[in-house]
């Protein structure tokens, strides 16, 4: 009932304040939450036309990225990058969206512009995917190791790393990595199950 009430308020805000970027952002996220991701294209384009603040563009782009709307996310994130010159870094979300839309080479070019201080586990996992797509398996494996080092207590880092290595037939490396995870997180059932399936 609370969600239904929230939906009513957001839809009313869109009708009353169609030029308000915050209202458009809330509506966009509501559509995604409600499983109506096929309806987000028009709200995303309207939001872009309003030239909102960089923070709103970044939040909308991230939401679209998580919903696998890569082209729409890329458009908003590019507008965000251009809205606040100089940006300094190319946000990770823009690099990932660019990878899915344009290809690994373009995505890696943006990844290289992210500063060292912002290179965490998500960065290295995304980089590994792009390197793998470029056929650079050794570099991809090295990036996976860095992803684990950056977040050794996050089970999802192990899951993504093992999935990538196993899909390339690198079972021994996948096993080494997940066994490290089992030593680091001995009580985590997800990691222990992942170790078993890798074996």
Roughly what percent helix? over 70%
Number of strands: 0
Shape: globular
Strand content: under 5%
Distance between the termini: 46 Å
Structural class: mainly alpha
Biggest sheet layout: none
Number of helices: 12
Order of helices and strands: HHHHHHHHHHHH
Average pLDDT rating: 90
Can you tell me the residue ranges where pLDDT is under 50 for at least 5 consecutive residues? Answer: none
Please tell me how large the radius of gyration is. 19 Å
Concise synopsis of the structure shown:
The chain is an all-alpha fold and 199 residues long. The chain contains twelve helices and no strands. The radius of gyration is 19 Å and the shape is globular.
How would you sum up this structure, described in words?
This protein has 199 residues and is mainly α. Helices cover 74% and strands 0% of the residues. The longest helix has 15 residues, at 2-16.
Annotation keywords:
single chain; 199 residues; mainly alpha; 12 helices
Helix-strand layout with pairing:
Layout: H1 2-16, H2 21-33, H3 41-49, H4 54-66, H5 70-83, H6 92-102, H7 104-111, H8 121-133, H9 137-150, H10 155-167, H11 171-184, H12 189-198
Helix pairs in contact: 1-2, 2-3, 2-4, 3-5, 4-5, 4-6, 5-6, 6-7, 7-8, 8-9, 8-10, 9-10, 10-11, 10-12, 11-12
């Amino acid at each position: 009932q609370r969600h239904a009430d929230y939906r009513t308020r957001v839809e009313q805000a869109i009708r009353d304040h169609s030029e308000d970027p915050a209202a458009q952002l809330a509506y966009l996220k509501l559509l995604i939450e409600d499983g109506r991701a096929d309806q987000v294209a028009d709200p995303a384009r309207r939001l872009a036309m309003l030239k909102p603040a960089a923070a709103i563009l970044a939040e909308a782009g991230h939401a679209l990225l998580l919903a696998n709307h890569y082209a729409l996310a890329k458009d908003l994130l590019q507008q965000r990058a251009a809205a606040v010159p100089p940006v300094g870094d190319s946000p990770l979300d823009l690099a990932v969206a660019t990878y899915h839309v344009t290809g690994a080479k373009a995505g890696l070019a943006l990844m290289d512009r992210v500063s060292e201080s912002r290179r965490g586990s998500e960065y290295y996992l995304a980089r590994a995917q792009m390197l793998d797509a470029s056929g650079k398996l050794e570099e991809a494996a090295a990036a996976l190791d860095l992803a684990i080092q950056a977040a050794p207590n996050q089970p999802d880092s192990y899951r993504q790393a093992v999935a990538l290595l196993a899909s390339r037939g690198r079972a021994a490396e996948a096993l080494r990595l997940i066994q490290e995870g089992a030593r680091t997180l001995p009580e985590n059932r997800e990691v222990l199950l992942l170790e078993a399936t890798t074996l």
